[in-house]
Amino acid sequence: MNDKPHHHGHRKRLRERFMNGGGNALPDYELLELILFQAHPRLDVKPLAKQLISHFGSFADVISAKPARLAEIKGVGPTVIASLKVINEAAIRLVGARVKDQPILGSWTAPIDYFQASMAFSDVEQFRVLFLDKKNRLIADEVLQEGTIDHTPVYPREVAKRALELGSSAIILVHNHPSGDPRPSKSDIEMTKTIVKAGETLGIVVHDHIVISRGDYASFKTMGLL
Question: What's this model's pTM, rounded to 2 decimal places?
Answer without folding.
Answer: 0.75
